[in-house]
Amino acid sequence: MKTLKEKLSIFTEKIKEKLAYWNKRGKEHLTVMFIPHSEKSILTLHISYFTLFFISVILTVIIIISIIGIVATSTTKEEVNKLITMSKTYSIKDKYLKKEIFELSEEMEKLKPQIEKIYTMASATKGEDFINLWAVGGSSEEDDKKLVKDFKAHSKIPEDIIFIKQIKKDLKLSEKYMERIKYFLKEREKLFSNIPTVWPLKVGGYITSDYGWRKHPFYRKKLEWHKGLDIASWPGAPIVATAGGKVIFAGWKGGYGLTVIIQHKYGFTTRYAHLSRIKTRVGRKVKRGDVIGFLGKSGRTTGYHLHYEIRIGLQDVNPWPYIINIK
């Protein structure tokens, strides 16, 4: 049996034989003759197989590199075209965003006076100075430093960024002021629920005589002070309490006819006169919107209507400024 050394020796010999064979073949020449049709001399070229092999290798490499170059150029062109398209798209977007940011900034500026006005109305102190209402707050020092650092390559921070930061500040301030207004409205709602602020008829009705001086309904040449509103509607129309309170009178009251008087908080009382029927009693607590009677023409009157009064203490006041919803 042959040893490993002998096997290696045989393998090496075979390789040497092959190399010798290819070396011999490579040195052989290939003759190429160029024979012209004219009587000029024949051009003869002697090329070894080695030379021919190297030329073939070089040509193959050149072809492969050319193909790769063409493909790469084509891909680069596609990428360049994509970048151009993206650049145009971003340019349009940038233009649109700048326009929107500018318009948003303008809208914010228009909104500021309205917020100031509402905020002033909600303020507990009259005449408070709101000149610098938008001059408080701002970004932190860290934010400003970061912004300068991010745009240090530019000669100045882009205008769009300044606009956005300012709008952001204004919105934060607006949120703060709206919270105060919201709190005020919440408190006002509590107040309004206890003062007469709704229309005294459940449905419909129209004014036939307003609050203040008027011609006397029975003595036309005489003037009288009318202490409330006369509201006409169909006979039997439901009359409602205009705020929560306690009934302190329910019955006949001279020229007022069938009358209901309700005591409310903060010194307010309301009077509902000329009713056809009363649907409550003295001492009863009523809520806003509860039916307390029905429209009629009892007492001294010229026709079907409700006489509605609001008093603060003993003083009658014009009901109109207190009525905030008319059905």
Keywords summarizing the entry:
327 residues, alpha+beta, Glucose Permease (Domain IIA), 10-stranded antiparallel sheet, two-stranded antiparallel sheet, 43% helix
Describe the structure.
- The structure is a single chain.
- This protein has four helices and 14 strands.
- It starts with a helix and ends in a 10-residue tail after the last strand.
- The strands form three sheets. Strands 3, 6, 7, 8, 9, 10, 11, 12, 13 and 14 form a ten-stranded antiparallel beta sheet that branches.
- Strand 13 and strand 14 form a beta hairpin.
- Helices cover 43% and strands 22% of the residues.
- The longest helix has 74 residues.
- Among the domains are: 83 residues, no CATH class; 117 residues, Glucose Permease (Domain IIA) (Distorted Sandwich), CATH 2.70.70.10.
- With 327 residues, the chain is an alpha+beta fold.
- Helix 2 packs parallel to helix 4.
- The chain is rod-shaped, with a radius of gyration of 51 Å.
Shape verdict? rod-shaped
> How many strands appear in the DSSP assignment?
14
Helicity range = 40-55%
**If helices are DSSP runs of H or I spanning 4 or more residues, what is the number of helices?**
4
Kindly report how far apart the N and C termini lie.
121 Å
CATH architecture grouping of the domain at 206-322: Distorted Sandwich
Rg, Å, rounded: 51 Å
Q: Biggest sheet: strands, sense, closure?
A: 10 strands, antiparallel
Write down the secondary-structure element order. Answer: HEEHHHEEEEEEEEEEEE
Low-confidence stretches: none
Structural class: alpha+beta
Instruction: Name the average pLDDT.
Output: 81
CATH structural class of the domain at 206-322: Mainly Beta
- CATH level-3 fold name of the domain at 206-322: Glucose Permease (Domain IIA)
Strand content: 15-25%
The CATH superfamily name of the domain at 206-322 is Glucose Permease (Domain IIA)
